[in-house]
Design goal:
Layout lengths: L2 H5 L8 H9 L4 H17 L9 H23 L20
């Protein structure tokens, strides 16, 4: 992702499931903080952090969702994805006048 687009990312989408997994594996505050820090670094600066298990598992599961969320934010900031309806969509054809 280029740096101009990345500058638009100022939030991190965090899901309750991630918190529940951290609770299930009884992460200490230090371990949990490492996961949150890694997620922030990944979301805001594209920095991938190597974490040991089980923190690394939680972070690895979260990365695709963080990437998708960031891409949605960028697309929305740029006015959404352009291009109109998919080819062959009968409902989107322009009517001749």
């Amino acid at each position: 992702m280029d740096s101009k687009k990345k500058e638009a990312i100022i939030t991190l989408t965090f899901f309750k499931d991630w918190h529940e997994i951290a609770k299930k594996y009884n992460l200490s505050n230090e371990q949990y903080g490492a996961v949150i820090r890694a997620m922030c670094e990944y979301s805001f600066y594209d920095k991938d952090t190597a974490l040991e298990l089980p923190q690394g598992m939680i972070f690895d599961m979260a990365k695709p969702y963080i990437r998708k969320s960031n891409q949605n934010k960028i697309d929305g900031h740029n006015g959404g994805i352009k291009g109109g309806a998919p080819k062959g969509n009968q409902n989107a054809r322009k009517k001749k006048q």
